[in-house]
Amino acid sequence: MSVDPKLLSALSSVVAELGNVPTRPIPQSIIKTLAPLVRPGLELTIDLDASQAIGAPLVMLSDKSAESPLLSALTPRQRQVAKLVTEGKTNRQIAAELGITLATVKDHVHAILQRLKLPSRAALTAALNNSQKA
User: Fold this and answer.
1) Is the pLDDT of residue 1 over 50?
2) For residue 76, what are the domain limits?
3) What is the pLDDT of residues 86-116, one digit of tens each?
4) Domain boundary residue among 43, 65, 87?
């Protein structure tokens, strides 16, 4: 997904401000910065707890309108894992990228395949590619 430069600039300022104010709830000034950028299908997640691990809040932006209907049956974390699987990443690479254990990735992959009634990672990739073309 290509990110609009205006949105990227707003997100950068939000991350900088969140880094300076590690309290909850999210300050009103941040919400005012993001509110004009909201549109249907755009999901913004701000994980303040990530500050302890990575030194800054984790801001995730996803465009739900561009997402495959196949993934709608999955949890947000399972969708992340499924997308990385379809990019050809190994469980170890997924674990490193998401900051989770290898065992957790394996659990997610198993749950994804089971929930979607697919036999393998290759079948997941094929099913996702086919659903995005439709």
Assistant:
1) no
2) 67-133
3) 889 999 999 999 999 999 999 999 999 999 9
4) 65
Q: Which two tokens stand for residue 11?
A: 């997100």
Handedness of CA 112, 53, 3, 36 (dihedral sign): positive
Number of independent structural domains in the chain: 2
Residue 54 shares a structural domain with residue 71? no
Q: Whole-angstrom Cα distance, residue 59 to residue 12?
A: 9
Cα(18)–Cα(47) distance, integer angstroms:
10
29-82 per-position pLDDT tens digit: 666 666 666 665 666 677 767 666 776 667 676 665 556 778 888 998 999 999
Which secondary-structure segment (H or E) carries 127? helix 121-133
Question: What DSSP string runs through 45-105?
Answer: EEETTHHHHHSS-EEEEEEGGGS-GGGGGS-HHHHHHHHHHHTT--HHHHHHHHT--HHHH
